[in-house]
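PROTEIN DESIGN WORKSHEET
SECTION A - STRUCTURE
LENGTH: 605
C-ALPHA CELLS:
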C-alpha cells in the first residue's frame, strides 16, 4: 500500500537519524522522535498536558543507551560515507506497527497510510518504550489522536487557495448541525397533517414554556402518532399559532445513528455530539427532537464506562436554553429510560394514548385527499369507517391510527395496480377485504360476512355441525347475541360459558365450531398442565428474579395477540384452585395484568 508524503517524511527522518548515529535498526522510538519535529504533533501533545522536550530527552536517551551501534567499515573515510552506502532495516516492532497502520488505513477506507495510521500502529505496541514514555507523561492517548486530527483538518483547510474549487467546497461544507441535526422548521415537507391531539399539543406547549425542566417526553405505543405530534408542532410554529415564548422557535431532529456512524477512535462521538449541541445552542429559541430517545442510554459508551450520550446531554437539560422533546414506547421507557433517574427527572412525561375508532375515522378523513391524489383513486363512501373497524378487529399487535392508515394506503396501491375499466378508479370495501386477507392471513369469508346477519343463522349452523345438543347450543347463541346487541353488562367478556358433561358429548367441539362460524381464532389451553400451585405464573408470567420473567405470561400474551377470540380452557376441573382467582378477575373486569405491568383486554373474548 502507498504511504502519504507526510508519513514518508517521518519515516525518512527516522532513517536519517538511525544512519547518522550508526544504529543497527530503525525502531518505533526513532519514528516517535521524528513525530516530535512536527508542529501538529507538538501542539497536540501540549494540549494533552505533555512536555515535548521531556519526551524528546527520554527517547534520545533510550536510543543512545539501549540500541546497538555498528562499527565503521574498513576503508570508510567518515561516517557520512557509511551512512550513504547502508540500507537500514526495520526492527520487528516497527514492522508490526506498519502492518497495523496499513490495516487501519484499509478499515477506514483510505488508499494510503496517513500520519494518524502510523501513530495508531505505534500506540498498539504496549510493550515498546515509545508507548511507555508517552504514558509516563500521564496523557490520554485517545485525546492525543483526536487533537492531531483536529490540527490536520485545520492545516488542510488553510492550504486551500481562495477562488479554487476546493475553496468553494470548503465554503459549502455543511456544519455538524446540518449533518447530524437537520432543522425540521426548514426541511419538513410532504408529511401528513396533525389531526386531533389537541390536549396533548396544549400540554406540550405548556411544558415547553416552563422555566425549568421544559422538556416533554412522549410515551406511547408504536404507531399512535408521537412523531406526528412533533410535526404538528412545527407547523403550528410556522403558522404563528403558538404562544409568544415559542414564536420563531426552530426545531431540530437529532440523528443519533448518523452521529455514531464512522466514529473510529474514542472521543470521536463525544466531539460530534458536543459540536452539534454547541452549534444549536447559538440559536435564539432552539428545540431538539430526539426520536427513540431511549437509545441515548449506552450510545457512545466504551467498555465498562458509563459515560454515554445521556450523560453528555444532562448539562444542556439543566441549563434550559435548549428545549428537548423525546419520544419512546412504554416498553423501552421502562427497560432503559426509567432506570436513569437523573435523566428521567429532567423530562415531563406525556402519555399518547391510542385514538378511538371515531377519532381514527376523523384522522383518515383529513388524510383522504392526500392519498387520493397520490394513488389517483377515489375512496367510496363508508370505506374509511369500514377500514378502521376491520383493522381494529383483525390486525393485532399494532395500533390505531397506524394500522388503519396502512390499510387504506395499501388499498389505494392495490387499485392502482389493478385498475378498473372505467375512467374513475374507486376503492370500495372489496379492495379493503382483499388487502386485509393478505395482511392477516384470515379467510375471505370471515371478513366479508356481515356480522349481524351471520348471528341470525348462527344457531342453525352450529346445530348442523354438533348433533344432539340443541338446548346447549341455543343457550350459547343467546349469550353471544345478547353481547353483540350491547345488552350485556359493559366491561366484561362477551360471554363466560361453562360446559358441563361427560367425555365425548361435544363440549370442545362446540367451542371449535363457534370460533369457526364467528370467523375468529380459537385459543386453547389444556388446564391439566396447570395442576401445580406455581403454574399460575405460566399464565401471567414469572415474578421478577425468576427464570422467564422477560417472556411474559402465556395467557396474557395470546390475548394481546388475539384480542378477539374464543378462549377454551379445556378440562378446567384439573387446574389448581389458585388459577380460579385469576379467572375470576378476568370475568369481573375483563382485564388481566401480566408480570411486567402490561394489560390484556378480554372484552372481545
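SECTION B - SEQUENCE
RESIDUE ASSIGNMENT:
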Amino acid at each position: 500500500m502507498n504511504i502519504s508524503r507526510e508519513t514518508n517524511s517521518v519515516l525518512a527522518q527516522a532513517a536519517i537519524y538511525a544512519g547518522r548515529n550508526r544504529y543497527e535498526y530503525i525502531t518505533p522510538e526513532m519514528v516517535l522522535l521524528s513525530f516530535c519535529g512536527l508542529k501538529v504533533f507538538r501542539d497536540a501533545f501540549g494540549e494533552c498536558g505533555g512536555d515535548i522536550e521531556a519526551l524528546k530527552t527520554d527517547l534520545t536517551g533510550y536510543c543512545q543507551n539501549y540500541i546497538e551501534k555498528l562499527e565503521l567499515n574498513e576503508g570508510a573515510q567518515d561516517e557520512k560515507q557509511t551512512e550513504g552506502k547502508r540500507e537500514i532495516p526495520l526492527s520487528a516492532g516497527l514492522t508490526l506497527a506498519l502492518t497495523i497502520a496499513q490495516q487501519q488505513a484499509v478499515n477506514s477506507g483510505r488508499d494510503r497510510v496517513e500520519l494518524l495510521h502510523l501513530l495508531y500502529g505505534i500506540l498498539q505496541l504496549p510493550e515498546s518504550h515509545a508507548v511507555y514514555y508517552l504514558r509516563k507523561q500521564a496523557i490520554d492517548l485517545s485525546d492525543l489522536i483526536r487533537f492531531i486530527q483536529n490540527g490536520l483538518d485545520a492545516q488542510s483547510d488553510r492550504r486551500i487557495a481562495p477562488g479554487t474549487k476546493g475553496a468553494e467546497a470548503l465554503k459549502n461544507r455543511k456544519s455538524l448541525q446540518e449533518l447530524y441535526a437537520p432543522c425540521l422548521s426548514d426541511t419538513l415537507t410532504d408529511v401528513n397533517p396533525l389531526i386531533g391531539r389537541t390536549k396533548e399539543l396544549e400540554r406540550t406547549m405548556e411544558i415547553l414554556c416552563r422555566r425549568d425542566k421544559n422538556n416533554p417526553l412522549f410515551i406511547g405505543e408504536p404507531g399512535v402518532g408521537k412523531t406526528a405530534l412533533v410535526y404538528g408542532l412545527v407547523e403550528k410554529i410556522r403558522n404563528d399559532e403558538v404562544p409568544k415564548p415559542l414564536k420563531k422557535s426552530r426545531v431540530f431532529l437529532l440523528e443519533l445513528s448518523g452521529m455514531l456512524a464512522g466514529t473510529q477512535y474514542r472521543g470521536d462521538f463525544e466531539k460530534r455530539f458536543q459540536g452539534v449541541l454547541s452549534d444549536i445552542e447559538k440559536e435564539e429559541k432552539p428545540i431538539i427532537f430526539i426520536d427513540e430517545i431511549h437509545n441515548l442510554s449506552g450510545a457512545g459508551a466504551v467498555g465498562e464506562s458509563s459515560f454515554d450520550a445521556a450523560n453528555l446531554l444532562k448539562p444542556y437539560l439543566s441549563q434550559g436554553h435548549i428545549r428537548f422533546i423525546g419520544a419512546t414506547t412504554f416498553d423501552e421507557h421502562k427497560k432503559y429510560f426509567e432506570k436513569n433517574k437523573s435523566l428521567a427527572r429532567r423530562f415531563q412525561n406525556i402519555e399518547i394514548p391510542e385514538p378511538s375508532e371515531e377519532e381514527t375515522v376523523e384522522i383518515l378523513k383529513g388524510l383522504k385527499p392526500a392519498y387520493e391524489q397520490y394513488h389517483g383513486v377515489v375512496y367510496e363512501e363508508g370505506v374509511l369507517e369500514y377500514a378502521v373497524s376491520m383493522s381494529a378487529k383483525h390486525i393485532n399487535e399494532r395500533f390505531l391510527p397506524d394500522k388503519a392508515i396502512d390499510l387504506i394506503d395499501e388499498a389505494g396501491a392495490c387499485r392502482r395496480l389493478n385498475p378498473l375499466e372505467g375512467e374513475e378508479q374507486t376503492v370500495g370495501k372489496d379492495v379493503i377485504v382483499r388487502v386485509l386477507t393478505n395482511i392477516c392471513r384470515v379467510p375471505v369469508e370471515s371478513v366479508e360476512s356481515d356480522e349481524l346477519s351471520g348471528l341470525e343463522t348462527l344457531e342453525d349452523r352450529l346445530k348442523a355441525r354438533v348433533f344432539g345438543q340443541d338446548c346447549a347450543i341455543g343457550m350459547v347463541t343467546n349469550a353471544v347475541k345478547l353481547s353483540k346487541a350491547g345488552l350485556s353488562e359493559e366491561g366484561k367478556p362477551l360471554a363466560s360459558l361453562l360446559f358441563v358433561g361427560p367425555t365425548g358429548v361435544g363440549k370442545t367441539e362446540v367451542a371449535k365450531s363457534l370460533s369457526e362460524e364467528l370467523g375468529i381464532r380459537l385459543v386453547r389451553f389444556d388446564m391439566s398442565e396447570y395442576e401445580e400451585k406455581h403454574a399460575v405464573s405460566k399464565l401471567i408470567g414469572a415474578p421478577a428474579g425468576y427464570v422467564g420473567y422477560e417472556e411474559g405470561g402465556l395467557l396474557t400474551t395470546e390475548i394481546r395477540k388475539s384480542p378477539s377470540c374464543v378462549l377454551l380452557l379445556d378440562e378446567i376441573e384439573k387446574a389448581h384452585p389458585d388459577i380460579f382467582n385469576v379467572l375470576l378477575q378476568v370475568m369481573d373486569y375483563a382485564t388481566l395484568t401480566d408480570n411486567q405491568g402490561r394489560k390484556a383486554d378480554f372484552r372481545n373474548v
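SECTION C - NOTES
DSSP finds 31 helices and 13 strands in the chain.
The CA atoms of residues 162 and 395 lie 61 Å apart.
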